[in-house]
Amino acid sequence: MDRDRERSGSINCPPFFDGNDYSQWKIMMQAFLHSQDEHIWNIVEFGWEVPTKETKSKESESSASVKEPKSRQDWSIAEVRDFNNDVKARHSLYTALSMKEKKRIGTCKTAKKAWDLLQMTYEGNKKVRTQKLQKLISEFETMTMGDDESIDDFHSRLINVTNECDSLSDPIAENRIVKKFLRSLPLSFQNKQTAIEEVQDLDTYTLDELLGNLQTFEMKIRPDKKVKTIALNAVRKVDEKPKELVKEKDSDSDFTAEDFALLTKHYKKFLRSGNSFQNSKNFSGSSSRRNMSGFRTSCGRLWK
């Protein structure tokens, strides 16, 4: 029955927790409690206490006063509302938990105490959470994408780590994730990585935009696990025969602004290196003209 409820998509059914994957459940449960009512989550986060009133101490002749619980009929409307919200929050927690976890929080009188107990059990105290966070940050910084790993699979691994950090109240900024993603790409994505860094502002470039860009590129270079040769190779292999330069499609739509920026960068670099040859004692004018002629011919074929 618990498994059937776990698969349920009802907005009235809290996410199920049986002791596994606490960090993910915590995020989902926070969202569920927020969806019920903002005041319900506030009660879980900040706690609820029995309303009190101040009365003069009977044991002391001084004017000192003491606090004692109010009778329920004396509660204000706001105090009644807070009490009801705490009951609703506790009910949601009990409904979300397996029998084993219900027993764990059975003695907790408020939703906050139950929530804090679960957090202490599965995340530890502040010192333990700090150590876990340091380990996660280290894992985040050292992650790399495998040569045969897909963009989607690497994204899942990376997001699992960032979600863990978020559950420990130390979220990683999106622009930091974007920059990390680019640094982690394998060599087969090096041209695309450079092109994106040349054209895009990585401080505002969203992760969704990056994923869409990389997945589109991935479909081009990995249909048969082989990287296609594009016009950029004309710059890197100007001394090779023109027949070795292949353009996979005639459509100009495959040549993006990022590709053009990278091509321009390498072409300018090539021209600078050509000028340096002219000042060399070993420079041969006829040889240079032949090389430049071959480069123009190769590029001309690519742009037809």
Alpha-carbon Rg, integer: 32 Å
- Give the overall shape, derived from the CA principal axes: elongated
User: What kind of oligomer do you see?
Assistant: single chain
Q: Write out the strand line-up for the largest beta sheet, numbering strands in chain order.
A: 1-2
Our measurement of the CA-to-CA distance between the termini, rounded to an integer number of angstroms, reads: 65 Å
Our estimate of the beta-strand percent is under 5%
Parts with pLDDT < 50 across at least 5 consecutive residues: 225-232, 238-253, 283-304
Describe what you observe in this structure.
Residues 281-304 are annotated as: Disordered. Residues 281-296 have a biased composition (Polar residues). This protein is mainly alpha-helical and 304 residues long. The protein has three domains: 2-50 and 70-123, no CATH class; 124-227, no CATH class; 232-304, no CATH class. It is 60% helix and 3% strand. It is built from 14 helices and two strands; from the N terminus they run αααββααααααααααα. It has helices spanning 2-7, 22-36, 38-46, 77-96, 99-104, 111-123, 126-142, 151-167, 174-183, 190-199, 207-221, 233-236, 257-278, 285-303, and strands at 52-56, 65-69. The protein has a two-stranded antiparallel ribbon with strand order 1-2. α3 (38-46) packs across α4 and α7 runs antiparallel to α8 (151-167). The longest helix is centred in the last third of the chain and has 22 residues, at 257-278. Residues 225-232, 238-253 and 283-304 have low confidence and may be disordered.
